[in-house]
Write a structure and sequence with these properties.
Elements (H helix, E strand, L loop, with lengths): L1 H11 L12 E3 L5 E3 H10 L5 E3 L6 E3 L12 H13 L16 E3 L4 E3 L1 H9 L8 E3 H6 L20 E3 L4 E3 L1 H7 L7 E3 H38 L1
GO molecular function, one term: zinc ion binding
Pfam families: zf-B_box, zf-RING_UBOX
InterPro entries: C1-like_sf, TRIM45/56/19-like, Znf-RING_euk, Znf_B-box, Znf_RING, Znf_RING/FYVE/PHD, Znf_RING_CS
């Protein structure tokens, strides 16, 4: 029953256009909600007109100055999404399509594990010394997730650097000992993560744009058939 309820809640947090969890949700005049980026893509597909047609009910909403960001935000939904993120962290190790809920977080691996993956992880001799936190402790605020993983060669050191040449994370000791040759470009992990996330967001934006245009075209064809 609890899992079924979680699935229902998760589905209610999905944007009808990109089928992903809402990002910066905006409300149309018909009360339907969509991601800001999805509405931007729809507006572009419609020729950047000031009137935006809802993909679900086909009702029109006027977009102030053709700027989707000026549409009212769904604050209640944004708050619910944040609460869900804090309460329901899914396993980042599972290969199954339906991600089970995580029960622990490994500070050394930097991954969330469900009960099955946690059991497998704890049985490996090399992982016995890993610091594992219960999700209940993280959610309650008793414990906090460490930002950096510990270096395998120097367990007391954090991997705060990234070598663009070797494509590896490294601690400062490893950088001095192994990454000083010409061609080794060392950057901070925060910089690497920022650049990496930007690349992912760019790819996701392009994919969402194509998916949105495809969905919009499909809806248009269906409407023509129904006429």
């Amino acid at each position: 029953m609890a899992d079924a309820l979680k699935n229902v809640i998760a589905q209610s947090l999905e944007c009808p256009v990109c089928l992903d969890t809402f990002t910066d949700p905006k409300i149309l005049s018909c009360s339907h909600t969509y991601c800001t980026i999805c509405l931007d893509n729809l507006l572009e597909c419609h020729g950047n007109d000031q009137m935006l047609r809802c993909p679900v009910c086909r009702a029109e909403t006027q977009v102030p100055n053709q700027d989707v960001s000026k549409l009212p935000a769904n604050l209640a939904l944004k708050s619910l999404i944040e609460d869900m993120k804090n309460q329901y962290q899914y396993c980042t190790s599972c290969k199954s399509e339906e991600k089970p809920q995580a029960v622990v977080y490994c500070q050394d691996c930097g991954k969330y594990f469900c009960s099955t993956c946690h059991n497998t992880h704890s049985q490996w001799p090399g992982f016995i010394t890993h610091e594992v936190l219960a999700m209940t402790e993280i959610v309650s605020g008793k414990m906090s997730v460490r930002r950096y993983r510990k270096c395998r060669k120097h367990p007391k050191e954090d991997e705060e650097c990234f070598c663009s040449d070797c494509r590896r994370f490294a601690c400062f000791k490893c950088v001095v000992m192994e990454h000083t040759n010409v061609g080794h470009q060392i950057i901070e992990v925060a910089v690497y993560e920022c650049n990496h996330m930007k690349s992912i967001e760019d790819l996701k934006s392009k994919a969402n744009k194509k998916r949105s245009c495809f969905r919009n075209t499909l809806i248009s064809l269906m409407n023509r058939r129904s006429v």
